[in-house]
Automatic annotation (TrEMBL), chains A, B:
Transmembrane segments: none annotated. SUPFAM superfamilies: P-loop containing nucleoside triphosphate hydrolases (SSF52540), PLP-dependent transferases (SSF53383). InterPro entries: Aminotrans_3 (IPR005814), Aminotrans_3_PPA_site (IPR049704), DTB_synth_BioD (IPR004472), P-loop_NTPase (IPR027417), PyrdxlP-dep_Trfase (IPR015424), PyrdxlP-dep_Trfase_major (IPR015421), PyrdxlP-dep_Trfase_small (IPR015422). The keyword Chloroplast does not apply. It comes from Malassezia vespertilionis. It is found in: Mitochondrion. Keywords: Aminotransferase, Pyridoxal phosphate, Transferase. This is Uncharacterized protein. GO terms for cellular component: mitochondrion. It holds the Pfam family Aminotran_3.
Length: 777, 777
C-alpha cells in the first residue's frame, strides 16, 4: 500500500512516452541528490562527486527489458556509482515487458505478479528508509505511463497501490505536447500527484514553454526544461561517441551541466528540481500532520460527539485503494501511511473497491459529455440505460432488481430521499384509493418493524419507531405501528429464530429466563432462508399469519388506525443493529397485508405483480440491495416482489451520491392517470438522474455482470451450498466464531459479517467499539 | 455545436501521436467509402475506382502545417481525386499549429479563433450533408489529441463542441500502447465516443493485439490492424521511392491492399471499417429516435404530469457543452442535433458551462485517489480544503460565504437535505436554550416568508406554508408562520417595492385597485439594494420594525406560538416564482428577531456574529449563493450574517450532488458541549463529504477566483454601476423589456433574468410556458 517516510522522499518516474530520457533524468536527479546539502541553499563546485552532508539516494528499476549491458540501472551505476541501484526483474528482449515476459515464460503471467511487484517495491522502499536519512528514492518505470507491466496491466494501474508522488518525464519531440498532456491526464485520473515535469528544452517545438504555462495554470505543476552541453549547444544528451572513453567523458560533462545548470546561472538545473521536490515533500508532511486538528476545527461530522475525539483519534485518509484506506500515522521508522481496512465499506457504499479505474473513467466520460443536464421532460443516455437496466430491460446474467414487477424509475440523491419519494408514492396511492374526497381527519400511518431505519430526513424518520436517532429531533413524530420482528442468529453452529415478547406475541410460549420466544432452529442458513419450503412444511407460517391477522385487526378495527404503506428492510435491518429478520415472517407479513385489502378499505382482488393490493409494500433495499448480502434483491429470497423499492449506496459503485426509487405501474398510474399537473409527484432534486452518477452505476452493473459470468463468487456459493444464500466469509470460520463464549451470536450473508459480542450497553449510544479501538492503539 | 446527419456519417480522425498514419488511414477510409456499395455486403474488384452506387466522401483538414506540397489534403487528392477535400487553415512551418500561427501572425491569436474554426467546420459539414446522400465526412486533426490548435487550445478541447464520433489512429511504435491508451483516455474524459481504433499491424511489438483485447473488454471499441503491401511484407506504407512515378505506383498498390485487404481474404480491411462505422451510425440514429418513447415508458420524471408529454415533447439530450444542450430533433436536411439553450442552467446547477474539462478532470482525480471514503471521525484533503474555503480560511479574491461568522461545515447531498440539517441544528438549539427539561407540549415552529421553498423532503416542506407542492402530500404539516414579503419589481425602468396586504399590513395604505401596498420607488437597483443607506435615510425601516414587532408579539403572546428558527431565502425566492424580496425588509426581520430575544424566551445580550440571539437565523442560499445572483453570499447585501446557511447547486460546479450546511460556533456548541453521544447531531448520509464532489467544488472555487481576479464580469458591474448589485444582462435591455405592455415586470440580478408576463394562471399548476413552447414548435 501507499508509503510515505518523514526522512526520505520517494518518487515514481513515469515517461510521457518511451525514449524521452527517463534514465537520463533519473541519473541526473540521483546525482543532484548526492550533491545537494541539507539546506540546499548554496551551489557547490561543478563536479559530480557526492557531498558528505548530502542525502543518500537509492534507485530502483522494478522491471527492465533489453540486454543486461543496456540496463538503465547499469547506466546509472556508471555515472553515479555511489547511488544504491537495483533492478527487480530483467528481461533480455527490448520490447514491452508483457511480451518480454511471455517470450521468457511462454505464457502471460498471472495477475498475482502485479501484487508481487508492488509488495517488492514496498519492501525495497522500507529498506531504503531504514538505511539512512535524509534520503531520496526513485523508481523508474518502463516505457510510457500506460505501457504494460509483465502481467499486462498498465504501469500506472500496477503501481497505483503505492501512489508515490510522480516525476513525469515529458516529451520534447514533435507531438510531445500531446503525449505529455495525455500522460499527465492518465496519471491524474488514477489519483496520482504529479509533482514535477522534467523535459529537455526544445528550441524548435517549444514544448517546454507551452507545457510550462499550461500546467502552471491548470494544475500548479512546474515544468523544468533541463539540459546539458551536447556538442551542439544545450539540450538533450550528446550523440554517442564511437570510442567508449570519449563517450563516457562527454556524458560526464553532460551530467555536470544537467545537475549544476549553465555556468552563468541562467535557466534551471537538477538541483532546482531537488529543492522543489524537497519543498513539496515537506509541505505534504506538514499538511498531513495538521489535517486532524484542522478538521476538528472546521468540520462537523455526522453522528459524532466531537468532544470524544482528540487529534490522534481522527483517521486522516491520504488515499484509498481496493479495500484499504492509506491512513496517516506518526509511527517513526515505518511508513507514515498505514493501510486500514475499510471495514464498513465506507458506510456500505463500496463494492468494487476504492480507486477503481473503470468507475473513475466512466465518471470522467459522463462529465465530459454532459456535465449535469436537466431531467424532467428530458432524457440522457446514462439515465435511460440505467433505468432500463434496473427494470431488467437490458441483458444481465443476474436478475435485475425491478425485473418482473417494476415499471418506473425515479431518481434522487441518497437513500433518505429515495425513501421520502417512496413514502410519498405509497401513502398518496392509499389516499387516492381509500380516501379520495374525504376530509383529512385521521393520520396516515405506516406499518413496519421495530429496529427499522430509513434515513435521516424527517419524513423517513417519521416512518420509524422512536429511538435515539429521534430523541433530539423536535419535529420527529413517529406515525406508524412497528411489529417486533423474529430474527435469526447463529450460536454453536445452529440457526435460531427468536423474538422478543410483547403484546402481539402474548399467546406464544416464552423463555422467561432469556425474555424471548424461541420460534425455530435450523441446521443451516440454507434451510432457514428456504422460504418456499418453510411455507409448505411446518406450522410457523400459519402461526405467523394468525398472529398478524389478529394484530392488524386490532390496530385497524379497535384502535382506528389508518395505514398507508407497509415498509420493510428485507432480510437485514442495517442501522438498527444488523438485525437478520426471519424471511418467513416478512413474507407472511406481505402476504397478510395483501390478503387483508378489506381491512384497509379496499376489495380483495387477485393480484398481479404490477397491481398493489391492501397496502403498497415498500422494500428499502438501500443497504441490502445489489449484492451486499449476496443477491441482487431480497425479493428473490422472500419470493414476493414489492410495489416500491429503493436502491442507493452500491448503486453508484461507491463513488458519488445517487439513488433510485422503483415503482410498479399501479403506483405510477395513481399519479399519471390525471391530466392535472398538481396530481403529479411534485418532488425532485437539482441533480436528478445526473449523468455522472448514472454512468458510474451502469459501469458498476457491467463489472458485476462480468464478475457474475466469470463465476467470481461461485466458490463461496459452493462453500455455503447455495446460490441464493451464501457469504464471502468462510462457513467453518463463521461457525467456529459462533461457539466463542464472549460471542453472543454470529450471522453472515454476502459481504456482511455480524459478530454480536456480549455487551450490556449496545446501540447508538454505545462507545464500546470506540473504547476497544482506543485500547488497541 | 454538435452535428449529426441521417444520411451522412461524419468522423473526427485523431492521432495517438504525430506520424502514426492519420493521413494514410484517412485516405484509405475515403477510398473505401467511394468503393463500398450501399449494402456493403459484396467485395468489389480490387481497384480504387469509385463505384457509382457508393457514398459521396468529403475530407477536411481544418488546420494544416508544413509546405503546401506536403499537405495532407494534397496526398489524399493524389490517390483519391474524386473525394471532396479541402483545408481551412494552412501554415507553412511543419511545427505545431500554435507556433506556426505565431510565426505567421507574430502573436498568439485570440481565443475567438477556436469558435471560428468550430463554426467553419460546422458550416462545411452542413454543406457536405446537403450535397448528396449517402455520404461520409472525415475531419483530420493535426498532431496528437492534445496537440495545440492555432489558439493554443488542445485539439480535443477545440473540437469538443462538435463532439463528432472519433476514429483514433493508434500508434504501432514501441511505446505505442501507452500513447494510444492515454490518447483514448484523454478523448473519453472529454466526452468523445471513440468508435474505432485504426493502426498498422506490428509483428514485433504486438500493440494491436494488446489494444484489441484491452479496448474490447473495457470500452467495447474495436481495434482494426490494417496494412497493405510495402515491399517488405504487409504493414505500414512502403518507403518512399526515389522516382515519383514509382512511388505513386507503390502507394496505389498499397492503398488497394489497405482498402480491400489481403487477397486471401484473411485479416481486416478498410471496407470492414466502413461497414463497422456505418453500423455504429445506424445504431446511434436508431437509439436516438427511440429514446423519447423509451424514456416515457420507464422513467418517472420529477414534477411532471406524464400525460402531457408526447414523444415529440421530450428533450433528448445527446450531449451538452457550454450553455447549450445538443438536442435530438427529426428535422431532415439540417443536423439531427440542434443546440438548445439551457435556460434554467439545469435547475440552477450550472455556472461554468456543461462539459467543462477542468471540472471533469478534478472529478476523475478524486475518483482515482479515493473513490468515496468514510467521513465521520475521519478526514480527506478535498473535504477539509473545501471546508476551509467555505469558511474563508484559504485565500480567495472574494469573500467566502462563511467568512466572519461560520465556524463549521456539515456536508450532505442536496439542498433539501442541507436544509433538513439546518432545521435540526436551529430548532434543537432553541429547544436546548429555551426548553431544556420541559415537557414537549407546544409545537416548535419556524418564522418565514410566504412563497418560500426549501426542498421536497417532508421536514423542509413543513417549514413552508401550504402550497400546490404540499396539497397532495398526506404527511405535510406546515409548522410556522409566514409573513407576506415586500418584493421588488422593475416596471417602466423604475424599481418598485410592493406588498400584498394582509392582517399584518392592516395599518398600511393600500392601493385598492391593484390590491397591493406600495412601499417605495427607486430610480435604480443600486439604490434599492443599498441597505445601509436605506436604514439611515427614510422611515421605511422603522415602519417595518414596528409592524414586525407588533406581529411577532401577537404571534407569541396572543397566539401562544413557539418559534425555533427564522428561515429565509435571502433576496430571491426561486421556486416560489422568482420573488425578489425587499432586502431592507429581510434585514429588518433579522434585526427584530435578534432584538426580541426576550419574546422567544431568552435574554437580550449584545450579539457577536458567532453567537445566535432570539432565534437561530437560517439563510437558504441554495439558489442564491455562489454568484447565481452576482455575489458570493446575500449576507453581503443584507449587511448581517446568519447563524446557519445552506449551499448546493453551483457548489459542486454543476456536476454531481453535494451540499453544505454552515453553522456558527454557538450552534455547533449546542451539540458539542456534551459528552453524550445521543446529544450529537445524529444525521448523516452515506456519501457525506464525498471526495469527488468536494474536489469538483474546490476546482469550481478556483476557476471562479481566477475569473474574479481577471475581472471577467467587471464590465457587467460597470454597466450596472455597482460591484455588489449587477447583472449579466445589459441594463438598457432590461429597462426596455420592463416597458412592454405584456410584460408585467422585470428583474435582473447576476445570471438571473425574470420576465413576469401578464398571466392570470401563474404558478406551479400553470402550463402556459409549456403551451407557449408547443405553439412555437
Amino acid at each position: 500500500m501507499a508509503q510515505l517516510f518523514a526522512g526520505m522522499r520517494a518518487h515514481q518516474v513515469f515517461g510521457a512516452d518511451t525514449e524521452v530520457g527517463k534514465t537520463i533524468f533519473s541519473t541526473g536527479y540521483a546525482l543532484a541528490g548526492t550533491l545537494c546539502s541539507a539546506d540546499a541553499s548554496v551551489r557547490g563546485p561543478r563536479t559530480l562527486a557526492p557531498r558528505a552532508d548530502a542525502e543518500r539516494v537509492a534507485y530502483l528499476k522494478p522491471v527492465s527489458t533489453g540486454p543486461p549491458h543496456e540496463m538503465d540501472a547499469g547506466h546509472l551505476q556508471q555515472y553515479a556509482p555511489w547511488v544504491h541501484s537495483s533492478t527487480m526483474l530483467q528481461f533480455a528482449e527490448p520490447v514491452s515487458p508483457h511480451l518480454a515476459s511471455v517470450q521468457k515464460a511462454g505464457t502471460l503471467p498471472h495477475d498475482a505478479h502485479d501484487a508481487q511487484i508492488v509488495s517488492g517495491i514496498g519492501a525495497w522502499l522500507l529498506q531504503q528508509a531504514r538505511a539512512s536519512v535524509p534520503a531520496a528514492a526513485i523508481i523508474e518505470t518502463a516505457g510510457g505511463v500506460n505501457s504494460p507491466a509483465p502481467s499486462g496491466s498498465s504501469q500506472a494501474d500496477l503501481l497505483r497501490p503505492l501512489r508515490l508522488p510522480v516525476v513525469l518525464v515529458g516529451s520534447s519531440k514533435l507531438g510531445g505536447i500531446s503525449t505529455t498532456r495525455s500522460a499527465l491526464e492518465s496519471l491524474r485520473m488514477r489519483g496520482y500527484d504529479v509533482e514535477a515535469v522534467l523535459m529537455f528544452p526544445s528550441q524548435r517545438y517549444q514544448n517546454d514553454a507551452y507545457l510550462q504555462s499550461l500546467l502552471a495554470e491548470e494544475y500548479a505543476i512546474p515544468v523544468f526544461a533541463l539540459g546539458g552541453p551536447n556538442g551542439d549547444g544545450w539540450g538533450a544528451p550528446p550523440v554517442r561517441a564511437v570510442c567508449d572513453e570519449e563517450d563516457h567523458a562527454r556524458m560526464r560533462d553532460y551530467y555536470i551541466g544537467l545537475v549544476h545548470g549553465r555556468e552563468d546561472g541562467s535557466g534551471t538545473s537538477m538541483l532546482d528540481v531537488v529543492r522543489h521536490l524537497r519543498a513539496a515533500h515537506a509541505k505534504r508532511l506538514a499538511r498531513l500532520s495538521t489535517m486532524a486538528s484542522k478538521t476538528r476545527e472546521v468540520c462537523w461530522w455526522p453522528f459524532t460527539q466531537h468532544g470524544r475525539y482528540t487529534d490522534e483519534d481522527v483517521m486522516v485518509i491520504d488515499s484509498a485503494y481496493g479495500d484499504f484506506f492509506a491512513v496517516h500515522n506518526n509511527t517513526p521508522q515505518t511508513s507514515l501511511l498505514a493501510p486500514a481496512l475499510d471495514g464498513s465499506a465506507s458506510w456500505w457504499t463500496q463494492v468494487l473497491g476504492h480507486g477503481h479505474a473503470r468507475l473513475g473513467a466512466a465518471a470522467a466520460y459522463a462529465a465530459g459529455r454532459y456535465g449535469h443536464v436537466l431531467f424532467p421532460g428530458a432524457t440522457n443516455e446514462p439515465a435511460l440505460a440505467l433505468s432500463e437496466t434496473l427494470l431488467g430491460k437490458r441483458p444481465l446474467s443476474f436478475s435485475a432488481p425491478g425485473h418482473g414487477w417494476a415499471s418506473r424509475v425515479f431518481f434522487s440523491d441518497d437513500g433518505s430521499t429515495a425513501m421520502e419519494v417512496a413514502l410519498k408514492m405509497a401513502i398518496q396511492s392509499s389516499v387516492r384509493r381509500y380516501a379520495e374526497g374525504e376530509g383529512e381527519d385521521r393520520e396516515w400511518q405506516v406499518l413496519g418493524l421495530q429496529g427499522s431505519y430509513h434515513g435521516d430526513t424527517i419524513g423517513v424518520m417519521d416512518a420509524c419507531e422512536p429511538s435515539v436517532y429521534s430523541d433530539h429531533v423536535a419535529w420527529y413524530k413517529g406515525r406508524g405501528y412497528w411489529l417486533a420482528p423474529p430474527t435469526l442468529r447463529v450460536k454453536h453452529g445452529k440457526v435460531h429464530v427468536i423474538v422478543r415478547p410483547n403484546r402481539d406475541w402474548a399467546h406464544w410460549e416464552r423463555d422467561t429466563a432469556r425474555d424471548e420466544i424461541h420460534l425455530a432452529t435450523f441446521d443451516s442458513m440454507q434451510e432457514a432462508y428456504d422460504v418456499t419450503r418453510r411455507m409448505q412444511h411446518g406450522e410457523l407460517y400459519e402461526n405467523y399469519r394468525a398472529m398478524l391477522h389478529t394484530t392488524l385487526t386490532r390496530l385497524v378495527r379497535d384502535e382506528g388506525r389508518r395505514f398507508g404503506a407497509l415498509v420493510l428492510e428485507p432480510l437485514v435491518m442495517g442501522a438498527g443493529g444488523m438485525l437478520f429478520v426471519d424471511p418467513l415472517f416478512q413474507r407472511c407479513l406481505v402476504d397478510v397485508v395483501r390478503e387483508q385489502a378489506a381491512l384497509f378499505g379496499g376489495k380483495h382482488v387477485s393480484r398481479t405483480p404490477s397491481q398493489w393490493q391492501g397496502l403498497p409494500v415498500i422494500y428499502d433495499e438501500i443497504f441490502t440491495g445489489l449484492f451486499r448480502i449476496g443477491i441482487p434483491s431480497a425479493a428473490d429470497v422472500l419470493g414476493t416482489s414489492p410495489d416500491i423499492a429503493c436502491y442507493a449506496k452500491i448503486l453508484s459503485g461507491g463513488l458519488v451520491p445517487l439513488s433510485a426509487t422503483l415503482a410498479s405501474s399501479s403506483i405510477f398510474d395513481t399519479f399519471a392517470h390525471s391530466d392535472e399537473k398538481t396530481r403529479a409527484l411534485l418532488h425532485g432534486h437539482s441533480y436528478t438522474a445526473h449523468p455522472v452518477g448514472c454512468s458510474v452505476a451502469l459501469e458498476t452493473f457491467a463489472i458485476l455482470d462480468e464478475m457474475h459470468m466469470r463465476g467470481d463468487w461461485a466458490k463461496h456459493q459452493e462453500d455455503w451450498g447455495s446460490t441464493t444464500i451464501w457469504s464471502f466469509w468462510n462457513k467453518q470460520f463463521v461457525q467456529r466464531l459462533s461457539a466463542y463464549a464472549h460471542v453472543e451470536s454470529v450471522m453472515a450473508l454476502g459481504t456482511v459479517l455480524k459478530i454480536a459480542l456480549v455487551d450490556q450497553d449496545a446501540g447508538a449510544p454505545s462507545v464500546s467499539a470506540q473504547r476497544r479501538r482506543a485500547r488497541k492503539r
